[in-house]
Amino acid sequence: MDMKRTSRELKRKMDTMSVSFGRPTRTVITKINRTKTTTSSSSRSIRITPKTIRPFASMVKAIRVHELGGPEVLKWEEVEIGEPKEGEIRVKNKAIGINFIDVYYRKGVYQSPLPFIPGREAVGVVTAVGPGLTGRKVGDVVAYAGNPMGSYAEEQILPASVAVSVPPSIDPSVAASIMLKGMTAHSLLRRCFKVERGHTVLVHAAAGGVGSILCQWANALGATVIGTVSNEAKAAQAAEDGCHHVIIYTQEDFVTRIDKITSGKGVNVVYDSVGKDTFQGSLLCLSPRGYMVSFGQSSGLPDPVPLSAIAAKSLFLTRPSLFQYTTTRDELLEAAGEVFANVASGILRVRVNHTYPLSEAAQAHADLENRKTSGSVLLVPDAN
Ligand SMILES: NC(=O)c1ccc[n+]([C@@H]2O[C@H](COP(=O)([O-])OP(=O)(O)OC[C@H]3O[C@@H](n4cnc5c(N)ncnc54)[C@H](OP(=O)(O)O)[C@@H]3O)[C@@H](O)[C@H]2O)c1
């Protein structure tokens, strides 16, 4: 399959939006026929068929945070979301992706004014478009990942510019499980440090949401992939996802093992999302002129890094955020297009390993934080 062509075609199909001015669209699809099929361990299928049309419901159910803290601060409430304004769409969410960044906001590691509705990833059906917007219509199935925050809701208002069409071949639950994580992997492997055949890469938390995608993609690019995980079950998953070597870093010293695997040469790049517990060891695993890509801190913020720590091996150190890699519409379509193309062609298998009702987001957060999850974690609105 010509990956570049498929990606370009998907990008063209996703970019159907243009703006002109006119009257607001006042109809809304509120009832959705959904066929649930628990097909395999790796995905769940949701079929969407527009059924009835009725006026806006003014209130919807959502998870809201009024004070920072543990999972218990995630409250299930009624909220008013209003109607889409110019350039906006209203979307009835079918599946909502959970990401570790939602935990950071809930705890206050990253800040947002209170109260807020968490969540930065969802797939849903457009139920209304704001005044003058063309190129988007009621009934479109769209995905978004990133800004704005607020996807833990039955419905939400989005700028139309952040939404991309979901290719019909991709199940909405799969799309909601990979949009943010897949685009993150895209930015890390294809732009931040370009992984090529012959490279050796280290991926921490290799069985996690982003980790699973990173390992599969790095393997497909021809790299030797080393993954770290906390237990045997996650090790088995990481091996299935293309890790040539899996290290259970809760049982053995990953630095020593990587030294053996690479015969002392070190790895070309470390993708480190664990932070505090792994950061120093990751630096030790790198070859001279290697890339330390610190993109998360699930175990806590790493200690400050003196320049001398990277000078000894002339290392490159970067702290990338997906949001800076998808700032323009073109960048967004490029990244989403490549991710969806890789899903469609089977290069990336999406593991939807955990699904919770939206009202039980607190349980989902507790499981994610306690390292009980692997692959992607989804919330599904209770009424679906
Ligand atoms: N920079 C960006 O743009 C960007 C975008 C997306 C995600 N991220 C980062 O990528 C990371 C992965 O996100 P994700 O949503 O896919 O989560 P995830 O990897 O599914 O879950 C986090 C994993 O981190 C590992 N971990 C190690 N020490 C931990 C600790 N003390 N507490 C909790 N987990 C610990 C666990 O795997 P083991 O049990 O195998 O150790 C856990 O399953 C996060 O750090 C997130 O912030 C960054």
From TrEMBL:
<dbReference type="InterPro" id="IPR011032">
    <property type="entry name" value="GroES-like_sf"/>
</dbReference>
<comment type="subunit">
    <text>Homodimer.</text>
</comment>
<dbReference type="InterPro" id="IPR013154">
    <property type="entry name" value="ADH-like_N"/>
</dbReference>
<dbReference type="Pfam" id="PF08240">
    <property type="entry name" value="ADH_N"/>
</dbReference>
<keyword id="KW-0560">Oxidoreductase</keyword>
<dbReference type="GO" id="GO:0070402">
    <property type="term" value="F:NADPH binding"/>
</dbReference>
<dbReference type="Pfam" id="PF00107">
    <property type="entry name" value="ADH_zinc_N"/>
</dbReference>
<feature type="domain" description="Enoyl reductase (ER)">
    <location>
        <begin position="69"/>
        <end position="379"/>
    </location>
</feature>
<dbReference type="InterPro" id="IPR013149">
    <property type="entry name" value="ADH-like_C"/>
</dbReference>
<keyword id="KW-0521">NADP</keyword>
<dbReference type="InterPro" id="IPR036291">
    <property type="entry name" value="NAD(P)-bd_dom_sf"/>
</dbReference>
<protein>
    <recommendedName>
        <fullName>Probable quinone oxidoreductase</fullName>
    </recommendedName>
</protein>
<dbReference type="GO" id="GO:0005829">
    <property type="term" value="C:cytosol"/>
</dbReference>
<dbReference type="GO" id="GO:0003960">
    <property type="term" value="F:quinone reductase (NADPH) activity"/>
</dbReference>
<dbReference type="InterPro" id="IPR047618">
    <property type="entry name" value="QOR-like"/>
</dbReference>
<dbReference type="GO" id="GO:0035925">
    <property type="term" value="F:mRNA 3'-UTR AU-rich region binding"/>
</dbReference>
<dbReference type="InterPro" id="IPR020843">
    <property type="entry name" value="ER"/>
</dbReference>
